Structures are given as structure tokens and as C-alpha cells.
Amino acid sequence: MYIIHSVNKDGFYKEIKTGTYGSYSLKKFGFIHCSDLDTYYLVAPNFKDDYTERVILLIDTERLNCEVKWEDGGGVDFPHIYGILSQEAIIGVYEHLWSDDREWIPNEELKQYAINGFRREV
Q1: Closest to 23 measured CA to CA, from 85, 94, 116
Q2: Cβ of 6: how many Cβ atoms within 10 Å?
Q3: Which pTM was predicted?
Q4: d(CA 16, CA 35)
Q5: In this structure, what is the dihedral angle of CA atoms 8, 11, 14, 16, given to the nearest 10 degrees?
Q6: Out of 42, 66, 73, 105, which could bridge 97 as a Cys pair, Cβ 3.0 to 4.6 Å?
């Protein structure tokens, strides 16, 4: 399965130089907040007022050597990674795209990894 994590671009590239990512999230939250591609539209508004450049990490859960728990995020279950991400688990890094009114624009390159093709539940 494929899940994603949105992160500040500079922070990610600084940390991944060590060969792993996630130490800050683990210290602050106890896990790394993630989403699947079909529910990320619910998460993206949390970042709309943050004008730092962001990237979306595409993570292959089969390559993780730590636990992923799907936990309630207010009526929707979201994946939380309970461990450090190795470079091998991050199979893609994509620019976080925004419209002029700061709505997330789904990356075309990611559509193949979405179970429902970015379908938004109403």
C-alpha cells in the first residue's frame, strides 16, 4: 500500500541526508502523520496558511520496518507510522501543488497510487 506525508521541503532534505526521516515527528507526536491519497484533501487545508515550500513523500508501506496504525482522525482513519522512515521506504518526493486560492492540486504523478483516483467523499 502507498501512503503520503506532507513536509517542509528544506526540513526534509536536511534530515534525509542522514539516511532517514521522521525523528522530529516521533519526538513531537510519537508517530509520523500520514494520509492515503484519497483522503489527503482533508489534511491539505491544515497547511494552506503555511507558505513555506512543501513536498509530498510517497511511502511504500511494504518497505517499512516499523508499524503503521490506522487511527481515528475525527471520523476518518489515517495512517500513523510508529518509527523512522528509511530512504528505501520513500519511493518518491513530489512538489506540493497549490491553486491560487490555496487549495491542494493533486499531482498527476500520484494518481496511479490512489485507490479511488483521488475520489473525494461528500
Answers
A1: 85
A2: 21
A3: 0.92
A4: 20
A5: -70
A6: 105
